[in-house]
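User: I'm curious whether this sequence folds into something compact or stays loose and floppy. Could you predict its structure so I can see for myself?
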Amino acid sequence: MADGQTSQSHSEEPVEATRAFWEDLGLPGLFDVHVHFLPPNVQAKVYAQFDQAGPKIGREWPIRYRGSHEERVDQLRSFGVRRFSALPYAHRPGIAAYLNDWARDFAAPIPECLWSATFYPEPEATAYVGDLIEAGVEVFKLHAQVGEFLLDDPLLDEAFGLIEDAGTPTVIHVGSGPVGNEFTGPQHLERLLRRHPRLPVVVAHMGAPEYDEFLALAERHEHVRLDTTMVFTEFFDQEAPYPDHLLPRLADLGDRVLFGSDFPTIPHPYVEQLAGLARLGDRRPDLGQDWLRRVCWHNGAQLFGLVG
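Assistant: Here's the prediction. I'll summarize afterward.
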């Protein structure tokens, strides 16, 4: 266990409720595009930041799932998550290659795991991003808030061009939650999209708290998607509730909204994210079961070319 902590046992998890959610929708399982697996030494440092409510966390954020990699993979399988990411993210120069090598080896024996990678503004970025694309990497992750870099940094431009041409989905955390800085906000993604309008971006956390602006970017750019990660949960609603007046537009964008959880770095049971999405149907009928089916399975399966 990381940091001497114990994870919640399977008996303490609402596994049956989690599985009932997707079974009742007639889905084969869940497609979770926002899951993190990191090298143990890096994971321990991430946990420490959350435990200390560090400056980029900004609030008490207890982590529910601290088991080993094997235990966490088993938990996802028990929930019925048939596909999930690993999403390493580089926070400084010189670490991306290490994270990418680790993530490749991690995903290789786990058929459910998308081969995930990251990059950072550094002279080597274009070369290793190109190598990863040629080798078949399935998803990239960038975290502008933690990494403290601008998305339109010239050192990233050629790498983004390669990703744009390849059509490799890229999950980007550039919203100003939980703590904004000069590198977060919709204006940064907007500038990037002017340069690379076909870039297949997945906006992490639906861009919280700038929901309106990021939703507008998705409406204007057909290759921009939003992931639901932690939005509509009680934890997020305390500080950044999703505005009711945006729900009709969110329903209209249903083909480009993807289910994400942020497992394992969440303070609540996994099922709470699903329950929050299900409650949307009580607020608007067009956010009901058909919308949930697309969000929780079909949109991710289509984006990543999964059959079945």
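Summary: The chain has 13 helices and eight strands. The first strand starts at residue 30 and ends at 32.
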